[in-house]
Design brief:
2 domains, three-stranded antiparallel β-sheet, 9 strands, elongated, binds nicotinamide-adenine-dinucleotide
């Protein structure tokens, strides 16, 4: 394959442990817009980075719930794309393999990846905004947002908003995987949203080889050993094919 450096293929084949960190770019080719893409229809005039915050929910819980209902519908229709499927294949071909995702759409598991750490929750679930109890399927109700069946407080999506802490165990497991890998892939993420963006630096500090896959430059690009410019849906199937040809 012309675009996959042979050196990289060798590094993958000799790696004892591989970690992949994904961001919303990996789901763009499944029709789930990133937060930096322009929004469409009713939501055109809203900035997602201002809706995905605890302050926005406090100010206008109905607006935020309805925006998430719209996104949930998009995600419900979305199917894993060739990039997701190639990552599932890469897990099957690798020894130790951990996929850390900032995505909340569940598409990595749907594609067949098994060792997945969800750093930012999952949009398909809701939780109580007061007590945090997870509610898988809120009952039909006229209330928007629906109410917690236990305490009556508003439900909210079970996702991590800007300014909120990450689930402790998930983040600890991600740091541990990053510090102990030989090869770290950063795919479809702007490398701007912390603390997830700190993970590639943990891997670099521990001596891992760093690979970035993104059509655009990011603050991480200059530190990467290999930069593959293109979309996840194009590059990842090429990478897996090149590995299978060996
Ligand atoms: P982000 O910070 O991860 O940035 C998106 C990155 O993807 C950009 O660098 C862009 O150049 C790149 N990209 C775009 N299309 C691509 C493609 N086809 N292949 C590879 N790379 C591509 O993500 P964000 O949109 O700023 O979102 C921030 C946070 O919001 C996320 O970390 C996540 O928690 C949440 N979010 C999740 C989803 C999802 O679950 N699908 C979607 C939007 C936002």
């Amino acid at each position: 394959m012309a675009s996959i450096p042979p050196d990289l293929i060798e590094k993958i084949q000799s790696a004892g442990s591989v970690v992949v960190l994904t961001g919303s770019g990996v789901s763009a080719e499944s029709g789930v817009p990133t937060f930096r893409d322009a929004q469409t229809g009713l939501w055109e005039r809203y900035d997602p980075q201002e809706l995905a915050t605890p302050e926005a929910f406090e100010r206008n819980p109905r607006l935020v719930w309805e925006w998430y209902s719209w996104r949930r519908e998009l995600v419900g229709k979305a199917k894993p794309n060739p990039g997701h499927l190639a990552l599932a294949e890469l897990e099957r071909m690798s020894g130790l393999f951990t996929l850390i995702t900032q995505n909340v759409d569940g598409l990595h598991r749907a594609a067949g990846n098994e060792n997945v750490i969800e750093l930012h929750g999952n949009i398909r679930r809701s939780k109580c905004s007061e007590e945090g109890i997870v509610v898988e399927e809120p009952e039909e109700s006229e209330d928007i947002p629906p109410r917690c069946p236990h305490c009556g407080a508003s439900l909210r999506p079970d996702v991590v908003w800007f300014g909120e802490a990450l689930p402790y165990e998930a983040f600890e497991a991600a740091v541990d995987a990053a510090r102990n890998c030989d090869l770290f892939f950063s795919i479809g993420t702007s490398s701007l949203v912390y603390p997830a963006a700190s993970l590639p630096y943990e891997a670099l500090d521990s001596g891992a080889v760093l690979v970035e896959i993104n059509p655009d430059e990011t603050p991480l690009s200059a530190r990467a050993d290999f930069v593959l410019r293109g979309t996840a849906g194009e590059i990842l199937p090429e990478l897996v094919e090149a590995l299978q040809e060996q």
